[in-house]
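Chain A, query sequence.
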Amino acid sequence: MFTVMIVEDDPTIARLLTAGLTKWGYNAFVCDDIGDVEGVFRRTSPQLTLMDVSLPRYSGYYWCERIRRFSTAPIVFISSHTASMDMVMAMSMGGDDYIAKPFDMDVVIAKIGALLRRTYAFP
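Chain A, predicted structure.
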């Protein structure tokens, strides 16, 4: 079972993502300390992270860059920012994919499955 960390400050979206991922057999959890995403990542070692761009204190770009210093685990941005520059910035900071809000849960699940297959070579 793959573990997915959700870094999202909107509780409704966090619950929706957790429920959808759990339904598909993923061990999903919401990062409980938005002020220390790196620390939570280090303690939990998720195989994939879903990261919002707009977070209190530091942006998702910041946390992605911090995580990339020691991990190659996939990071997928999920954001209401839809400008091409936001997507370019996400990829430049180390993100592996970008999903615009509002999102379709089936698309989220398909993208996560594809990234995990390529990263961890499971059938």
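The chain has a mean pLDDT of 95. The two ends are 13 Å apart (CA to CA).
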